[in-house]
Amino acid sequence: TTKFASAFDIPVKFIEKNVKLRGRLHHVTEKGLEVEHIPISIPFLASLQRKWQSKGLLLVRLAGVELAPSGMAWLQQELKPKQTLWFQLLGREDLALECLVLVNKGRFLSTCLNEEILRQGLGRTARIEGLHHESRLYWKLHRRLLRAELKASRKNKGIWKEESYSERIRDRISNNRVVQTLKQFVSWLRSS
């Protein structure tokens, strides 16, 4: 029932047990997602709870994901301010929380943003900070993230997109010095 206003407010037991918390998105920044924690409310005490709750935003990072610049743009486009999301605590590093972030897609479906970004080819898999890499959970999550990244690389999506043979030939021809000199000569002829 407590509203967490900073990463240090969250008890260590919550992080060790990988508790899922609910929050409301405020901003997508380069450092991560700024999320307002939504505590469990008790029906008759909800109005009193709001008066005692502190205000502040939690900095939530996508665990195991190294975002590409296009990934940041995709997040800003996909996520809307005041959107409700769930984040599963995996670790805490200074003021940031390393989390799996889940977004509801319809009534019964939810999407893990960490996996979706990798599936779209908008980032790379990274070490999951905060989890011991001998733990079963670490390897389970890391395997899921690697599978998502592999799908993107097989489908040539995002950062894994390769130029076709014709595009490579066209680039080589247009960057050739002789061709560039001819273009300059033709533009000089047109201007005179």
From TrEMBL:
Keywords in alphabetical order: Acetylation, Membrane, Transmembrane, Transmembrane helix
Return the InterPro entries for the record. Answer: C3orf33-like, SNase_OB-fold_sf
Q: Kindly report the protein's main subcellular placement as a broad class.
A: membrane
The record gives the membrane topology as: Single-pass membrane protein
Q: Does the keyword Transmembrane apply?
A: yes
Keyword field contains Membrane: yes
Stated name of the protein: CC033 protein
Organism for this UniProt entry: Rhynochetos jubatus (kagu)
